[in-house]
Amino acid sequence: MSFSRVYSAQVNVLDGELITIETDISKGLHNFSIVGLPDKSVEEARDRVGSAIKNSGFTSPKQTNQKIVVSLSPANLKKEGSYFDLGIALGYLLSAGDLKFNPDKKAFIGELSLNGDIKPVKGILPLVKSLKSAGFEEVFVPFENKEEAALIDGIKIFPAKNLIEVIKHLKEEDTFCLSTQPLTEILIENNFAHNDFSDIRGQENVKRALLIAAAGGHNIAMYGPPGTGKTMLARAFSGILPPLSKEDILEVTGIHSVAGTLRGALITSVPFRSPHNTSSYVSVIGGGAIPKPGEVTLAHKGVLFLDEFPEFDRRVLESLRQPLEDKVVHISRSKGTAVFPTNFILIAAMNPPDDNATASDIVRFKRKISGPIMDRIDIWIDVPKIDYELLSQKEKSGKTSEELRKEILRARKKQEERFAGSLVRTNSAMSVRDLDKTVVLKEEVKKILNMSAEKLGLSPRAYHRIIKLSRTIADLEDSKEIETKHVLEALAYRPKDEF
Fold this sequence. Notes:
Layout: E1 3-12, E2 15-27, E3 31-35, H1 40-43, H2 45-54, E4 66-73, H3 85-96, E5 106-108, E6 111-112, E7 118-119, H4 124-133, E8 138-142, H5 146-149, E9 156-160, H6 163-171, H7 204-216, E10 220-223, H8 230-237, H9 246-259, E11 272-273, H10 281-285, E12 286-287, E13 292-293, H11 295-298, E14 303-306, H12 314-318, H13 321-326, E15 328-333, E16 336-341, E17 345-350, H14 359-368, H15 371-375, E18 379-382, H16 388-391, H17 401-418, H18 432-438, H19 443-456, H20 460-476, H21 484-492
Parallel strand pairs: 3-4, 5-8, 8-9, 10-17, 10-18, 11-14, 14-17
Antiparallel strand pairs: 1-2, 2-4, 6-7, 12-13, 15-16
Helix pairs in contact: 2-3, 7-17, 7-20, 19-21, 20-21
């Protein structure tokens, strides 16, 4: 047999793309070429595959006088990474007649080392998911990727440590040299942050604001002097959020697997991302020649904490508009366009100018944060200095994170019932149409809201966000209707004059 066809897959944005590996061997002077828009790492597979085959007990392609052509299709898709090493090696052995097996419904993923060991690759979860959707029944994956691959039910996963194991298994399919990896169990756990809310002395108003933000999925900005606990409060915040569902766990794990940030088989706790204020546009928003997810996508279903918020590059801050509003970010490049999910809660922290600041310092600070960005943050809360007497107390302060989480779960349950049958999950995600359908304001409440909006000069977006925030406050207090006190509290969270 001089021609063979086997199957593999590669990551394409956040999904998997089926790749067909065709190998043709013909007589002639030695030549080994890979076609189908391969990048440098794919072209280098020739050397990796040749050495792996030789060190697995077979004749290396380099030792033969023959023309070897490996075609990766679809030909118009850029091939990158080391996903295809295992498939190319098996395709060559099949084409050369050194190995016989039926490649139908089988896929092979993995990077080969020079001695034939199979190294792990990133993005296994979306790859296996796409192969299952394409009708494949068996996937051979690196041993280190076995638990992540086995998150997908309905497809056989064969983890292998080296090329020899795969060859023996394919030669003697009835003996099952490789064992099928059992389905990985998904355990939904509560989030455990490093800090408990009760360990943070004072700041009860800030804790209340964070409770509301978590209950309705609202973005929040904390401002105040350095050292008042803003970072500690932000890190404790992830511990009061509801746990991820099984669907969320698979989605978040897939994103981090593609990005190469996955530690372990899967992510079961709410993501908490905290990029430094010197981070580049691409690292925060996403992008690159071939679009890759940034921090806004890695924070999907979790928290994006931006400390020293005004110190981020202005281009980064302005680019947050779409992720905050639409919960997706569009990345367009000459080599492709990608849409990444960005459903996160933003926590911004900043130190506004103090009493000794000059007028130019204040003007410069205000220019750093535009009105449209401010309108997309529902809650603005001052984090004042703490009295030293309060700091020296040993007893815990306020409710624990567990108690707050129970309140949030009750409020989220009300929202789940309210939005049953729609894609909306939290009050913050309501559109104007959703507001008209689900929120009815009493006349006296509407009057207070309209008077306040006119006095404060609220934009239409800010006006609607006040209603959403009021609805969340009402849910926390188990109120069916939005009352005047709920609107007044929501209005109290608007940015103050210093902004």
